[in-house]
Design a protein that fits this description.
single chain
């Protein structure tokens, strides 16, 4: 139980570090969220406002802060029960509601990919989420990005629930999808009209 609490806290605190803010200050000497439409301290704004290097470093760090706690938990403990579901979502919750930034964070997209990659060598969930994003961007095109993200996480959660045998991973994916969706539903972007087009 102590190990579980440690990794829950470590995952949340890892997620609470907003690297877009850090790299923006170091490389561009500015707050990369200032003047942006959504004020999101995430990878997309790091690329758009901070440039390629700032974006790449933010992407790597946002993936890593999700990957490392999950990867370590699976290798440093013998616990394989339901707690894994909560440990999977802890870094995402940290990014969305960061302790170090008055609980005002980003959407958790890159971090959630990092968490799912932390299940390595089992990366099926990460591939499913990526495939859903690609599918809703190239085949059944949903726009704007706000609705595409909601659809991708919902579809990935359903597919994971139907195909993955490990209960903790199924529920972990559902918790991640729920956290990201809840954050998106609190954004102003939802006022835009959803458009769907089959290519």
């Amino acid at each position: 139980m102590t190990e579980i609490c440690f990794y829950l806290l470590a995952g949340y605190l890892s997620g609470s570090v907003l690297y877009a803010q850090i790299w923006g200050r170091i490389l561009r000497r500015k707050d990369i969220t200032a003047g942006t439409r959504d004020g999101n301290p995430g990878t997309a704004n790091a690329f758009m406002e901070g440039g390629f290097l700032c974006g790449m470093l933010t992407l790597i760090c946002d993936l890593a802060k999700g990957f490392v706690p999950i990867w370590l938990f699976l290798r440093q403990t013998d616990y394989t029960g339901f707690a894994l579901a909560f440990i999977l979502v802890a870094p995402v919750l940290g990014h969305i509601y960061p302790l170090f930034h008055h609980f005002q964070g980003g959407k958790g997209i890159a971090t959630s990919f990092g968490c799912l990659l932390g299940l390595y060598p089992s990366i099926a969930c990460a591939l499913v989420l990526a495939a859903c994003f690609i599918g809703f961007s190239t085949i059944l095109v949903i726009s704007p990005h706000y609705y595409r993200t909601l659809a991708a996480y919902l579809a990935a959660a359903i597919i994971t629930f139907l195909t993955v045998k490990t209960s903790a991973i199924r529920w972990g994916m559902l918790l991640i999808a729920g956290a990201v969706s809840f954050k998106l539903l609190s954004c102003d972007e939802k006022n835009e009209r959803c458009k769907v087009k089959l290519l």
